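User: I'm putting together notes for a lab meeting next week and I want to include a structural view of one of the chains we've been expressing. I don't have a solved structure, so I'd like a prediction I can at least talk through. The sequence is below, exactly as it appears in our construct file.
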Amino acid sequence: MRLQIRRMANAGLCDATTRGPMSDPIEALIEKTAFGNQTAYKELYRRTAPKLFAVCLRILNNRSQAEDALQEVFVKIWKTARQFDRDRARGMTWLIAIARNQSIDVVRARKPAPVSVDDASEIPDDLPSPESQAITSDDTRKLKGCLEELSTQHGIAVQKTYLSGWTYQEAAEELKVPLNTVKTWIRRSLLALRDCMNR
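Assistant: Thanks for the context. Below is the predicted structure for the 199-residue chain, given as C-alpha cells.
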C-alpha cells in the first residue's frame, strides 16, 4: 500500500508530501509511466534510449537487431513499469536488466533449427566474399586512422557517445567541460571524420 501511495505521489496523483521528492529523475519518470503518463514515458525514452541501445548492441553485435530489441524493451517498460520498486533497484539498473534480458532472448532465438545431412548441400553460403571482407577491413583501418587524427578529448567524446552509448551530458561530466562544448566538439569531429574518410 505504501508503495502504491508513493507511486501516486510521484505521478502527481496524490499529495506529494506522503514522501519527499525523489532524487533520481529516471525513477520518477518510471513511476509516472506506471500510471500511463505518456509525457513521462517519452522523456524516459529520450533520456535512456542511447544507453539501453548500447546494452542491446553490445550483446547482439548487430545494429538492426539491437534497434528491434530496443523497441521491445520500451514496450516492456510501458507494460511493466508498475512492477518497478525503487527500494529494490535503482531506476537505470532496472531498465538495463530489461534491455539485457530482451537481448539475451534474441540471441537464444538466433539458434538455427537442425538441418539434415541430405539438406546440407542446399544451405546458402552467407559468409562475405574475400573482396567484401577486404573492403570492410580497409574501412575499419581507415576509420581508426581518422579517429587518431582527432585531439584526444575530441576522439573520446565521439567514441563514447557513438560507440558506448554515452549521452552528451555524460560525456560533458566525464570530460569536465560544458555541455555545449561537448556538442561543438562532436559536431566538428564528425565533419572532420567525414572529410578524412572521403580522402
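A couple of points you could mention at the meeting. Residues 1-21, 119-123, 129-136 have pLDDT under 50 and may be disordered. Residues 37 and 61 are 33 Å apart (CA to CA).

User: Perfect, that's what I needed.
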